[in-house]
């Protein structure tokens, strides 16, 4: 195209398709056009000088100009430039062949820089290389289904094509070139088995090329280690670990045969351990780790006796231990936690034996704690105790100087989750020490948070502590939960006075958990305490904390505390509450129902939950019969009118009233399927049967959730 353009300029002619009125343009290349003078008399002299300048520019154009563009692509942090690099290499080779310009032909630096760009883009799932390899298709990619042309090995295919070009041009790829190809396969996110097989083939091809004298350097420890890493990510349980072990033995044999720099190092052993551990063979990974520890300790013992080994065995590092710990903790077997603890103890023993740099970090403990609190070992009776023991040990070691156990910044294994998960493990099992454990760990977080921002108690941590108090059932649970709420509100006020945002903001769930703590305690103040928490919630919402908006559940929890105010704990024994205390609880329940009748907040009004809980108060509390029965009957009548009669309401009414009174209340509110003796009749009027929820008028149940009604039938 350039030669044709030059001829056109030399002859002073221009193509009719490239002419405009007043101006004439001559196409020189795909992306460039040169303006031709309008003056026809000077066109001949200008054309000859223009041609001379273009030839001079062609002589100045060499491979380093293109290499600078490739380097610019490689230094750019974001974006997928793999296809652009491949197109640029194609362009360089095409210009060199078609225009006989060998100066622009890619050299070894060009290919190595291109490999680096392709390796960086290999992590992108839908790579631009799909468009590069399907550019010749008649049907464009836009008309295809998403992912139809996607191949996860496109990056590896491009890297190997560059390697093939180098060999075809009689270049001698060096170790860096092959490492770039292997790095590409190691970064591919999908198609992991194919990537491992391809990487394995690359190293075997490298061995063959060196054997036949086509490259100068054989594969070294880094190439084999990257292949093991590819196998580790392959997900092939029956193949990955075994193949990595074979590669390890092969490296050891080549080392004995005299090949340079092929002796396995700690990265190689870690890759093999990783391949076993991550592919379902944790026992094999543990055996390999312990074998490394024993070999190193035996060598150290011989050295103390004056016997020096010619070759020191490889010493395991923190990653070696953490890999096995993590995979034992992730197993779905209950004994996985104990096996992980054994490895942790072995790690600490190895550390104290003189290997100061092999230190546990946050992962060493958090993986096992997760197993006992959230994983397969959480159902064991002693799981919360084992998790708490590990956490206390973790805190103690941090105070001794192991600062890596508690990172000062937020990350994926934030230590605050270790604290909250231990508290939750006690709370889920309703252990009577869950509140005390939560308070202890909150105090530890408070002290550690003075230096570590990641451990400053926040709303999430306080919720776990409140959950602990709501689950333990101790007599002081309500008081302690209320104290924590007051602390959170005080922190909010202090932060507001400084113009900051508090990280201990109260929410609806905070107040409801505190009310639950009061309801489940055996304190004589349970009804009053739950009401006080409701008042705190209303006041906090009035102070513009929108996350503390009172809900129907908050009012219902006060009613629930009133319903269970019939018993208290005195000197460690559960006794019946005095009539005065029970009457006070009933008065609080009536107050709540009265407030709900006035709808204090939008959509906060009496529902099936509140009607049923109030009737439950009438049935459980020791009240005069006329007060209890009349209040229950009146509440049921209101419930019928509002359409909130559910199975819960109906059941509580049956327990709160005697049978005769129960049927009379049904009849008074419009239930008609009763005979002259007040018994429930079947539809044909010939049989007597108990009253069911389905028999009640639909008008009574019109506002009850349909799914709830179906599940209660």
Could you provide a short overview of the structure?
The protein is an all-alpha fold.
Describe the structure.
With 713 residues, the protein is mainly alpha-helical. Helix content is 60%, strand content 2%. It is built from 30 helices and four strands. Strands 1-2 form a two-stranded antiparallel sheet. A hairpin with a 2-residue loop joins strand 3 (567-570) and strand 4. Helix 8 packs parallel to helix 10 (221-232) and helix 21 runs parallel beside helix 23. It is elongated, with a radius of gyration of 39 Å. The termini are far apart.
Class inferred from helices and paired strands: mainly alpha
- How would a textbook summarize the main sheet? 2 strands, antiparallel
Sequence stretches where pLDDT stays below 50 over 5 or more residues: 1-55, 136-150, 707-713
- Rg is 39 Å
Give the termini distance in whole angstroms.
Answer: 84 Å
Task: Using the alpha-carbon principal axes, give the shape.
Answer: elongated
Task: Please outline the helices and strands.
Elements: H1 2-10, E1 24-27, E2 33-36, H2 43-60, H3 63-75, H4 82-98, H5 108-121, H6 129-133, H7 154-168, H8 175-187, H9 192-211, H10 221-232, H11 240-256, H12 266-277, H13 282-304, H14 318-330, H15 336-352, H16 362-373, H17 383-399, H18 415-428, H19 434-448, H20 459-472, H21 477-498, H22 508-520, H23 526-542, H24 552-563, E3 567-570, E4 573-576, H25 579-597, H26 608-620, H27 625-642, H28 647-656, H29 659-668, H30 706-712
Antiparallel strand pairs: 1-2, 3-4
Helix pairs in contact: 3-5, 4-5, 5-7, 5-8, 7-8, 8-9, 8-10, 9-10, 10-11, 10-12, 11-12, 12-13, 12-14, 13-14, 14-15, 14-16, 15-16, 16-17, 16-18, 17-18, 18-19, 18-20, 19-20, 20-21, 20-22, 21-22, 21-23, 22-23, 22-24, 23-24, 24-25, 24-26, 25-26, 26-27, 26-28
